[in-house]
Amino acid sequence: MFERFTKDARAVVQSAVTQAERTGADTVDAEHLLLALLDREASRASFALASLGVAEEGKESVRQSLAEARRRAGLSQAESDALAGLGIDVARIVARVEEVHGVGAMSGDRKGRSGLSGRRPFSRSAKDTLERSLRTAIARHDRHIGDEHLLLALTIRPGVPGEVLADHGVTYESLVRVLYGDGEAKAG
């Protein structure tokens, strides 16, 4: 599959590994792919994000939303809301755990953790995103998988990255309009 990835898409995957290493994560997750996409410049995905209002300020807001989800042990806001409906206050639980064990205890971001040696494996969420990017490219009759296909894949899979993107106005439908257009400007 990776032979079909463009230079930009390969750079996103490599940057996602770096993101995971920098945070001390055990695996490369879909969240790391999104963080890597936010760092891209002069690519189809970066153009699409900017066109949808996720420029520098928006990118920082996305990063903050991802960090908040990480503090909730990776629970999406929808999952936190569902638990609240059952009388479980996730924010209170996080505050209590962090009071006892330190900030970031539920996220795995605590300092002083010994890092892994060697390569970090890709989590199910990251593998699913990569597979969906292939399916998205095939469905669009595109010959190669670009970083825009990775971004599209993140918007259609459930979980924190897709929810955060949707909260910032980046949905599958809005991306398709920007990237492939209906007579409007296209990312190129």
Write a concise keyword list for the protein shown above.
188 residues, Double Clp-N motif, 10 helices
Note down, in words, how this protein is organized.
The protein has 188 residues and is mostly helical. The model is unreliable at 109-116 (pLDDT under 50). The chain has a domain at 2-70 and 119-180: Clp, N-terminal domain (Double Clp-N motif). The chain starts with 6 loop residues before the first helix and ends in an 8-residue tail after the last helix. It is built from ten helices and no strands. The longest helix is centred in the N-terminal third of the chain and has 17 residues, at 7-23.
| Cα radius of gyration in angstroms | 17 Å
| Assigned CATH architecture of the domain at 2-70 and 119-180 | Orthogonal Bundle
Q: What do we call the CATH homologous superfamily of the domain at 2-70 and 119-180?
A: Clp, N-terminal domain
Number of strands: 0
Mean pLDDT: 87
* Helix share, percent: 55-70%
Could you please say which CATH topology of the domain at 2-70 and 119-180 applies here?
Answer: Double Clp-N motif
Structural class: mainly alpha
Largest sheet: none
Shape: globular
Proportion of residues in extended strands: under 5%
Measured distance between first and last alpha carbons: 23 Å
CATH class of the domain at 2-70 and 119-180: Mainly Alpha
Give, in order, the helices and strands: HHHHHHHHHH
Low-confidence stretches: 109-116
